[in-house]
Task: structure prediction
Amino acid sequence: MEQDKDVNASENDTQDTLVNDDSVVVEDVLDTDEPLESAATAEATPEKMQLLLEDARAKADEHWELLLRERAELENFKKRHDREIENAHKYAIDKFVNELLPVKDSMELGLNAAAGENADLAKLIEGTELTLKLLADVMGKFGIEEIDPTGQPFNPELHQAMSMQPSADAEPNTVITVFQKGYTLNGRLVRPAMVVVSQ
Result:
């Protein structure tokens, strides 16, 4: 029985200690000098909310104006790009035309000379040869090459056979006559050479 009394007394002492400790903690909290922020003061005031709204509207307006400017610049770039492409298509052969004009001038001079009363046939032939050379030089500048396959083996990729003839001087399947020369542009066939091929 005495042991039971001692145990009960010990438990009562422990509970008193716990109560006293909790009281100390509560008192320490209540005794602090720092004021507790209430829920009402933590919320933003209407004035602050109005300022935040106005700031957000100003930023939204600024971003919208920036978007409009960027869109206008993009449209201008697109229009400029389209004009450049259109001009490139229109004037792609501008340099070729400038190189070709002297050839036309030379032909007109030759025609005027031939129409004169004292036309010299030898000079006309010489002038025509010079004009053809000038034209060939212009064509060469722009990657236009002549196909003249006389005496060469027939090539169906570059030649078009008009007919076949027996020939004692040429091996079979050889070009013996060229009716019309062919041309390539930078290696691509523009017109095949019209030829006669030996049997």
